[in-house]
Design brief:
By secondary structure, this protein is of the alpha+beta class. The chain has one domain: L-amino peptidase D-ALA esterase/amidase. Helix content is 22%, strand content 26%. The protein is built from 6 helices and 16 strands. The strands form 4 sheets. Strands 1, 2, 3, 4, 7, 10, 11, 14 and 16 form a 9-stranded mixed beta sheet that branches. The protein has a 3-stranded antiparallel beta sheet with strand order 13-12-15. The chain has a two-stranded antiparallel sheet with strand order 5-6. Helix 1 packs across helix 2 and helix 4 packs across helix 5. The longest helix is centred in the C-terminal third of the chain and has 21 residues. The two termini are 35 Å apart. The relative contact order is 0.21.
């Protein structure tokens, strides 16, 4: 498959994606590698985030470039996988130069999948290293793999009525040839909707064989009732081959979050850790229009979220939306 046919984040020159998946334990992790470094920033909107090294991504900080982004299941335990990513990069001499060698800069975010499968199995350093070994510039697998393995969505009526989430990717391109793409692991409290049609793609499983309306469920519940058994989180990466500053990358991440809000209802809740990283490789010499790229990044996030859910397969007793619709 040539670059023109690749509609995913690996169409961005300089990026590779690898998954590590444990289907039996219903967890996994995904690594976006940029060994040569990419200018980066982040936007965290959810009330329950689990992140690594996000402070260094603030505009004005010393470091401009990172070498990998880790998206992982396992809650905060899953951040152990970053150690394996660092080791893989260090072995290849990739990282921020220091007098004693290099320090690979690996940022990351977690989603909480401990209620599915085995809660005592989480991505670790070996898992992060394995994801790096598996990384390539081919279109990455989507659905119930990597960080999307244990992901679930539509939990307004608790896990007993949830559906499978997953991981998905999509790309948008400007008329001048610059591209922006998204890779998103969808593990939301809210339901997933198609922004174009307004139709629910994955909502709580209702008693009548149709999706229950999440907003109606929230409206009717007693005040201060528990939202869910555990926090959730939709986490992802948007990347462009345009040359952006760290401040531009921050704005790209902020605008990309609007795509998350259009495709997930509700988004950015107290029990979600919604986090979007932004990367710029600068591989394409084209005019930079952050407004244009940000608008397309949001669109890519929308499409990636829909891909994540529609490509998912049932796991550990939780069906996918497609499987439940077929009865």
């Amino acid at each position: 498959m040539g670059p023109s046919q690749n509609d995913t984040i690996t169409s961005i020159s300089g990026l590779r994606v690898g998954h590590w998946t444990d289907a039996d334990a219903a967890t996994g992790c995904t690594v976006v590698l940029c060994p040569q470094g990419a200018v980066a920033s982040v936007d965290v909107r959810g009330g329950a985030p689990g992140t690594r090294e996000t402070d260094l991504l603030r505009p004005g900080g010393l470091v401009e470039r990172v070498h990998a982004v880790l998206l992982t299941g396992g809650s905060a335990f899953g951040l152990d996988a970053a150690t394996g990513v660092m080791r893989w990069l260090e072995e290849r001499g990739k990282g921020f130069p220091v007098p004693t060698g290099v320090v690979p800069l690996v940022v990351g975010a977690v989603l909480i999948d401990l209620s599915l499968g085995r809660s005592d199995v989480r991505p670790d350093a070996a898992a992060g290293y394995a994801a790096c070994e598996a990384a390539s510039d081919a279109p990455p697998a989507e659905g119930s793999v990597g960080a999307g393995t244990g992901a679930t969505v539509a939990k307004a009526m608790a896990m007993e009525r949830a559906l499978k989430g997953g991981i998905g990717s999509a790309r948008e391109t400007t008329a001048d040839g610059a591209s922006v793409a998204a890779l998103v692991a969808v593990n939301s409290f809210g339901e997933v909707v198609d922004p174009d049609s307004g139709h629910t793609v994955a909502g709580p499983r209702g008693d009548d064989g149709r999706f229950a309306d999440t907003l109606d469920v929230i409206r009717s519940r007693p005040p201060l009732a528990p939202f869910a058994a555990e926090p959730n989180s939709t986490i992802g990466v948007v990347a462009t081959d345009a040359a952006l500053s760290k401040s531009d990358c921050y704005r790209l991440a902020v605008m990309a979050q609007t795509g998350l809000a259009r495709a997930i209802r509700p988004a950015h809740t107290p029990v979600d850790g919604d986090t979007i990283f932004a990367l710029a490789t600068g591989a394409v010499d084209s005019p930079v229009d952050v407004l244009q790229l940000g608008a397309l990044a949001a669109r890519a996030v929308e499409r990636a979220i829909l891909r994540a859910v529609t490509q998912a397969k049932g796991l550990a007793g939780v069906p996918s939306a497609a499987e439940w619709a077929r009865g």
